[in-house]
Amino acid sequence: MSKLMYPIGTEKAITQISKDNTLTYVVELSATKYEIKKEFEKMFNVKVESVRTMNSPLNKKHAFIKLNKDFNASDVAMKLKLV
What we know:
Elements lengths: L3 E4 L3 H10 L1 E6 L5 H12 L3 E8 L5 E7 L5 H7 L4
């Protein structure tokens, strides 16, 4: 079962795509950073530099997935139809 649930397309998240090469995803509460990284790399065929997570007050877990500088987050966002 997939740990990645859905991408976040808010204005702030879209800004992070171009500014920080970072995509924001809602993930399962039980997902670890390692699991998120491996699944994202496999799903989109990219290299992930780092994963930061945050638990929101609405009982959801957000993952900030920063891509390696050799890959462009805008390309992945286009595939996801975020931009």
